Amino acid sequence: MSDRTSPSTSTLCPSSVSLEFCSCLLALVIFTCLSFLFPTTHPFDPRTMSGRMGSSLRLAAARSRTGSARLFSTQSSCLRKEIRDAYILSASRTPTAKFNGSFTSVSAPKLGAVAIKSALEKSGVPVSKISDVYMGNVLQGAVGQAPARQAAIFAGLPSSVEAITINKVCASGLKAVAFAAQNIQLGLAEAQIAGGMENMSRVPYYLPRSSGMPAFGHIKAEDGLIKDGLTDVYDQFHMGNCAENTAKKYGITREMQDQYAIQSYERAQAAWKAGAFAEEIAPVTVSGKKGDTIIDTDEGYLDVKLDKVPTLKPAFVRDGTGTVTAANSSTLNDGASALVLGSKAIAQEYGQGSRVLARICGHADAAVDPIDFPIAPAKAVPLALERAGITKDQVAHWEFNEAFAAVIKANEQILGLEGANVNPLGGAISLGHALGSSGSRILVTLLHALKPGEYGVAAICNGGGAASAMVVQRIESV
To answer: Where is the Thiolase N-terminal domain (predicted)?
Structure first.
């Protein structure tokens, strides 16, 4: 169900009009037409029903403006459902490991299991209340059947809990949270787990499996990481080429991108030094020949020489006009993140005292031309804000995924966010970009940074030309 085409699946938008109101309006049109066909007064004459119809329309309009729930009618007026609020009770993430770093022996589902188990323990919600798990995972080659199902079972959830794997490329983790929220909003579930996971270090190389293979001789292998994670399938060029296109279109210079990348590393280093990530991290135990090692810190944020950033050669366009480099792009990484969501009743019972208790105010997806994927957040964010019923000026903290520095600079320019509180703790350039987890990872970080009463926005672009965005508000109680 698309957020763009079905506003009723998103959280309350004050301007939304209920289907009951539309039904009443349609009935009025029909009655008016009948008055011309049958001018004699009869029980359905609009002249005798105008008072009652006006009252019905006013009642329907009043219902459509209610803030806590909207009503929609099925074919029978006595069958009505309520669009409820969805809440986040807990949020955890694993450290983000470097490519071919500490997590090379840990599959994506097992990383996901660590995040799920941590989030569930923090929430205090009994396992018996959880009905579904949604986990984003992009690079599924050699991961095994049903990655989300694996993560749920490895986390200790019973086999009766359903699990669904989501692939919306980089936005997978955030979209997984949106799906879980919709279930709660529609009354289909009381408690859900959602997040994302990725191990880019373990992605295999592909060999063609066709009858046309030679009987002997060399066979060309394809890098699964590049093919399924980093290449625009329509134009057959790297995501970095899309970022170059965006940089040129919006006048984003090499210096601007390098300056932003340096700022990202400096912010991440300062955040780790201040202990800003301590409460969101779920340590991962990695077994090795010399025993177990506990990984509890992001691995890449110190792995940079800031004075060397301006000296790197462009990575994608090498004709002298390129501006996107390895330093001002996100890195390849492994990691996972998870959140526990619940209804109002669940939040009231288990959410008191939660460090990250929040209401999901609105969420949205948006699509653009594939080459323009870096600016897709600028289309999704306004829609999410509209559905949440707030303006950008009410947002205290923005988390945009730093796929490339050009992504942040372009979206800031389009949305008018220059000088806003965007990624104050660093982002994917410095902290890492584990594809399937990144959308939910920025949400985990956002929730831990917000103060009660504050609104925050998480937004992420994804390959293929799209983006997802979510608006949340931290609260102390329900």
So the answer is: 87-343
